[in-house]
Structure formats: C-alpha cells, structure tokens
C-alpha cells in the first residue's frame, strides 16, 4: 500500500479497503509517517489494539523515498543525491533563507528542454519522477537530514510542467495539512514557459501556488537561441498565458533572468525586458550565469551585473538580486545533473 504519493483521504480510503476499521487508525498511521517520519507502529495505540496490524504494515506499506547516497555542503547550502529504485540518481538542494529553509526539488531525471545555460538539459530526459519520488525529496530532507523545510521550489532537475500529472498529485500531498502541511504560499513551480502546463496549474484544485518563469531574454531572437521552447511558444503567447494566471492575494509572478555576458546584458536588453514585463505584476530575480564545465556562456562582471540591475530599477522593475549560493558544489541555478541523473555503475 502506497503512502508518499497519497493525500490523507486517499490513504485512509486505501487503508480501510486493505485493513478495515474506521478512519482513526489510518489517520494515525498517515500522521506517523508523513509528519514524524516513523515507520514503527507498535507504539501507536490505534495499531496496538489490533493484533497483527503492525506486522501487516511493516510488510505491506510501500515507503520508497529513495536512498540517500551522497551529500555535500558549502556555506550552509546542502546538495543531496537520492538513488531511485531503478538505480537512477536525482539531486535536491537545501538552501538556508534567513530563519527558514527552502528545498529545491527535482521533477524529472534529466530534462528535454535543452536550455543552453542549464547543465541538466545536456542530459536529455531519462524519465519523469513519480509523485512519490517528488514528495520523497521533502521526506528525506525533513526526516533523514533533519531540516525544517518550510519552502518548496520546483527548480531542480527537470521541467515540472512537462510532468504535469505527477506534479499536480505531489502538490496535493505537499499541501495536505494532515501530512506534509506546506502552505501554498510557500510553494513555487518554475517553468520555461509551457503554456498548456501553466493553464493546467492555474486550475489546481488545491488553489493557486506561486509561479516562476525562466525568461532570460528580452526578445524572441535571443530567447530562441538560449531556449528552444521559444521556437514553439513565443514570448507574446507566453505573456498572454501569464496574465491569465490566478495570483494569490498580495502575490506576484516571479520572473527569472539569467544574466549572460555579451548575450542579454545590454542597456537595450534591459529596456526591452522592462517593456515586456510592464503589463504584469512581477518580481524579477536577476541571476548571474553560473558557469558549467564545457559551456561557452559566462557570467557578467560584478560591474556589469550592477549596471543591468540599475537600468531595470530605473525602468520601474521590481528586481531582487540573487547572490550565488552553492556554486562551488555545483548546486546553484543551472548546475544540477553532474553526479545525479546517471545510472549507478
């Protein structure tokens, strides 16, 4: 009987079909696993009152977050590698943010979007992650690494909206207050701009979550050279979809702009970007390109980064500086997929 890819109600229904009884026992088991990370049930009164049930659960409960096989840290950032049942690896990143922790989760093994600045894209797509494998990263961070994860961002390996069924089910599990209990306002799904997926996410039955768009260019010409998806979905079509996305109260769209030396860092680029964003309520994350082995794309100088930032501010854009975190352990934006994502051996 599965659990990591089940909401409380789904699990309790399955529990009653398999083991009988009322909802109380199933609820107690669900809470023991999802909230406390425990798989020993002998101490639960609801289980102890039914002879043999603890043994049935020990042998029949499918808890498969994957095996933690590697971790590395730098400056508070922790990257950990999970080995999945089919011997593929994925990477996740814990990022300290003031008094809370953000977990960057993967949604696929590899990625087929092919963005030039992203190391994961060079792997191609090996397969989608299941909802249990997505939720399992939060489970591992909380219950094996002991991290009090409050924020979850889908900015790891893969394109989340290229795996919509498992993404949506994972979101249902993550926001369930009787389980992982992560508030929707603390969840962000990042996409290269798959408009059909954005439309589907807009209809998520758990309510709107934050949406981040990896834009990285001021016009179609530059974006198509950096991101193949733009050849199928133009920036104009993307903006139409973004303007229809239901934002939570007091929220805004997040736009990610990877600044690359000599590619998208001119003053005219800043001006065109500001004009593109003007009709929308956005917060722009300005990210210096993180160099990857073998890439010809380079980060801007500190002075060039500051100039571009100031140009955007002068145009009235809300800009947030994104300092480099985890670059030395290949855990920064666009760097995942070095150790993870390959078959063991």
UniProtKB/TrEMBL annotation:
SUPFAM superfamilies recorded: Radical SAM enzymes (SSF102114)
Annotated Radical SAM core domain residues: 97-324
GO cellular component, one term: cytoplasm
Family matches, as CDD domains: Radical_SAM
Cofactors named for this entry: [4Fe-4S] cluster
Signal peptide span: none
GO molecular function: 4 iron, 4 sulfur cluster binding; metal ion binding; RNA methyltransferase activity
Keywords: 4Fe-4S, Cytoplasm, Disulfide bond, Iron, Iron-sulfur, Metal-binding, Methyltransferase, S-adenosyl-L-methionine, Transferase
Pfam families linked to this entry: Radical_SAM
Broad class of where this protein is predominantly found: cytoplasm
Gene Ontology biological process terms from the UniProt entry: rRNA base methylation; tRNA methylation
Family designation: Belongs to the radical SAM superfamily. RlmN family.
Protein name: Dual-specificity RNA methyltransferase RlmN
């Amino acid at each position: 009987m599965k659990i990591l890819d089940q909401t409380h109600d789904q699990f309790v229904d399955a529990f009653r079909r398999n083991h009988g009884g009322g909802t109380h026992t199933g609820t107690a088991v669900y809470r023991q696993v999802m909230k406390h990370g425990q798989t020993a049930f002998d101490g639960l009164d609801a289980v102890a009152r039914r002879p043999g049930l603890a043994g049935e659960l020990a042998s029949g409960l499918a808890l498969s977050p994957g095996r933690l096989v590697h971790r590395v840290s730098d400056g508070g950032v922790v990257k950990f590698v999970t080995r999945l049942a089919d011997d593929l690896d994925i990477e996740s990143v814990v990022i300290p943010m003031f008094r809370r922790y953000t977990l960057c989760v993967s949604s696929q093994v590899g990625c087929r979007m092919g963005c030039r600045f992203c190391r994961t894209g060079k792997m191609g797509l090996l397969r989608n992650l299941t909802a249990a494998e997505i939720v399992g990263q939060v489970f591992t961070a909380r219950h094996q690494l002991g991290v009090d994860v409050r924020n979850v961002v889908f900015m790891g390996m893969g394109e989340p909206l290229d795996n919509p069924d498992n993404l949506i089910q994972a979101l249902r599990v993550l926001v369930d207050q009787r389980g992982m209990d992560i508030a929707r306002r603390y969840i962000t799904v990042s996409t290269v701009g798959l408009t059909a997926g954005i439309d589907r996410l807009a209809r998520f039955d758990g309510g709107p979550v934050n949406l981040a768009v990896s834009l990285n260019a001021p016009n179609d010409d530059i974006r198509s050279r950096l991101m193949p998806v733009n050849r199928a979905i133009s920036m104009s079509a993307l903006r139409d979809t973004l303007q229809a996305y239901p934002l939570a109260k007091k929220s805004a769209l997040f736009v990610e702009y990877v600044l690359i030396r000599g590619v998208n860092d001119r003053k005219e680029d800043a001006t065109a970007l500001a004009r593109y964003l003007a009709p929308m309520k956005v917060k722009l994350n300005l990210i210096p390109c993180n160099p990857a082995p073998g890439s010809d794309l380079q980060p801007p100088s500190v002075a060039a980064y500051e100039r571009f930032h100031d140009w955007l501010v002068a145009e009235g854009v809300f800009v947030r500086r994104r300092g480099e975190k985890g670059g030395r352990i290949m855990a920064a934006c666009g760097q995942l997929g070095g150790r993870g994502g390959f078959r063991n051996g």
